[in-house]
Structures are given as C-alpha cells and as structure tokens.
Design goal:
It is a single chain. With 298 residues, the protein is of the alpha+beta class. The protein has 3 domains: 2-64; 77-136, Helix Hairpins (Orthogonal Bundle); 145-295, 2-Layer Sandwich (Heat Shock Protein 90), CATH 3.30.565.10. The chain has helices spanning 2-23, 30-98, 105-136, 149-167, 186-202, 262-273, and strands spanning 145-147, 170-175, 182-184, 209-217, 222-229, 277-283, 287-295. The strands form 2 sheets. A 5-stranded mixed β-sheet has the order 2-4-5-7-6, covered by helices on one side. Strands 1-3 form a two-stranded antiparallel ribbon. β4 (209-217) and β5 (222-229) form a beta hairpin. The chain binds adenosine-5'-diphosphate and magnesium ion.
C-alpha cells in the first residue's frame, strides 16, 4: 500500500510539473525530458513494487486462512474426543443399572455417583469451551466495576474448602486486607482465582499445603494474587505449553481428571480481558506458584 501511495504522489507531482513546463512553452529543454524519463521510471517501479507487495499480502492471507481452518478442525476434533470420554462413562454405568447388573444398594449408589460426577465434568467442560469461544469471538459481556479482591478470594477459599479437606490438603489463608481495588468483572476474576486454587489442590498430594495470598505492589501499582502449593510441580519442558488449549502434563494425567482448558481460560480472562499478567513458577517434584497481577484502579 505504501508503494502505491508513493506512486500516486509522484504521478501528481510529475503531472503538475509537466503541465507547468508546457505552460512555460519549454518543450525542448533536454534536462526537462531527462527529468520526465526519471519520473516515468520511478512511477513504473513504484507500481511494480506495489503490485508485488499486494500479491505477497494476498498469499499471506491465504496461508493464514488455511492455518485458521486447520486450527478450527483440530479444535472440533479435540472437543468431540473430550466430550466422548465422560459421555461413554455415563452411558456405560447407565446401561449397567438398566440391565440390573448392580445387584445391591451399595453398588447402585456407587454407579449413580459416578454418573453424577461424570455429568458434572461434562457440564464443566462445556462451560469452559463456551466461555473460551465467547471470549475469543469477542461476544463476552464484560461488566467492569471496582472489585475488592479480598472478598473474592475469601469466597474462593470457602468454595475450595471441601475438596481440600477431602484430599487432606491444608488451605492457608494469607489474604491481606488491601485497601486498593481493581476495575474488573467480578465473576470472571472469581473464576480465574478458583481455577488456580482448584489446580493447586488437584496437583498436590495428601498432606500438602496450598497458600493463597494477596498483596499490593507499590512500584508496579498492581494487586498480586498468588496460589502456592507443595505439589508435584511441572517438568521444565512442559512449562511453555501450560496455557495451550487441552494441554495436560503427561505425568499428571493419572493424578486427577481434567480437560486442560482451565489455564487457557484463566489467561484469556487475566491478560486478554483485564490487561493483567499471569505468574507461573514451578519446581518439578517440589511445588508450583500460579497467580496473576491486575492494575490497581485509579
Ligand atoms: N498447581 C499445579 N501444579 C502442577 N501442575 C499443574 C498445576 N496447575 C496446572 N498444572 C498442569 O497444567 C495442566 C493444565 O491445567 P488446566 O488447564 O487447569 O487443566 P486441567 O486442570 O483440566 O488438567 C494440568 O493438567 C497440569 O498438568
Ligand atoms: Mg484446571
């Protein structure tokens, strides 16, 4: 586009100059003809370069379209695969119940519970997929208001308590009462914080500790939320993939169920929507710290 603009300017200047020369009756000046020739060559090369540039942009667009279409196909096949796992489980246990394979109340109750937890998993998976799609397509309604992170984190702690107790993981509340607030969508920040706390509990073996802290950083004018665990940690080569959709560390798959969408969604909420930043530190075999920083509201 730049080349075409330059060409247009040169043509305009050249034409004005030529008209001016003709008005002066100066048809025979050799220097004027020379300048005219230089002008024509300049214009021609600008046009050729402009066309080449346009062609390159078109090819680039085509490659990007092909890449997007491949991403969409990969996403759809991945989603279908992920949906099939809990659905197969629900189907299998429902069939066992229908066929009368569960002969006593204890077995029946166990099967009902499996169906219920698999249905919950399916529902969470669909929620995550819908949330991510809505954010990516720009269709999410974001309600920004001054939000006190203390209150949100206390609620997250309350909600996470039962699963921590069930796993014998201690939840330590290090949420300081900070005076500042952030301009944010309350529900989204709640979801982001809950995702990090749930992960910390999920990937920390029995007897471990999960600490949730909140602090204000004066220099960067940010509020910082951190969730530290004494869990399994993350292998160095997996660190760069953590936020990819559906990524789960191979060694963790047997430890807990999951879809690999939570961190992707969390990052989209923090960095994409709230212009904050994610924090990740981990030592394989020792534990991890996940968190986020959000700019303090003016
Ligand atoms: N606190 C943590 N400690 C160790 N590994 C973690 C932690 N949080 C996340 N991970 C790793 O990152 C992966 C992606 O996390 P996430 O997107 O939340 O997926 P999910 O929780 O569904 O597995 C997890 O599968 C796990 O391997
Ligand atoms: Mg998760």
């Amino acid at each position: 586009m730049m080349y075409l603009l330059v060409a247009a300017i040169v043509i305009t200047v050249g034409t004005t100059y030529a008209l001016w020369m003709m008005e002066q009756g100066n048809y025979t000046n050799v220097w004027a003809v020379g300048r005219g020739a230089i002008l024509v060559v300049g214009v021609a090369s600008c046009v050729v370069l402009g066309l080449l540039h346009l062609r390159r942009e078109m090819l680039h667009d085509r490659a990007r379209e092909d890449e997007l279409s491949k991403l969409k196909t990969d996403f759809v096949s991945h989603v279908s695969h992920e949906l099939r796992t809990p659905l197969s489980s629900i189907k299998a246990y429902a069939e066992l119940l229908v066929d009368g394979e569960a002969t006593d109340d204890k077995t029946r109750s166990e099967f009902y519970h499996i169906i219920q937890s698999e249905a919950d998993r399916l529902s969470r998976l669909i929620d995550n997929i819908l949330n991510i799609s809505c954010i990516e397509s720009g269709m999410t309604r974001v309600t920004r208001k001054p939000v006190a992170l203390n209150t949100i984190l206390k609620q997250v702690l309350e909600v996470a308590k039962p699963s921590a107790r069930e796993k014998n993981v201690s939840l330590v509340d290090q949420v300081e009462p900070v005076f500042f607030s952030v301009e944010a969508d309350r529900d989204m920040i709640y979801q982001a914080a809950l995702n990090l706390v749930s992960n910390a509990i999920k990937y920390t073996p029995s007897g471990g500790t999960v600490r949730i802290s909140l602090g204000a950083q004066d220099e960067s004018k940010e509020l910082v939320v951190q969730v530290s665990d004494t869990g399994v940690g993350i292998p160095p080569d997996a660190m760069k993939h953590l936020f990819e959709k559906f990524f789960r560390v191979e060694q963790h798959k047997s430890m807990a169920k999951g879809s690999g969408l939570g961190l992707n969604l969390t990052r989209q909420i923090i960095e994409g929507i709230h212009k904050g930043r994610m924090i990740v530190k981990s030592e394989y075999g020792k534990g991890s710290t996940f968190g986020f920083a959000l700019p303090i509201a003016a």
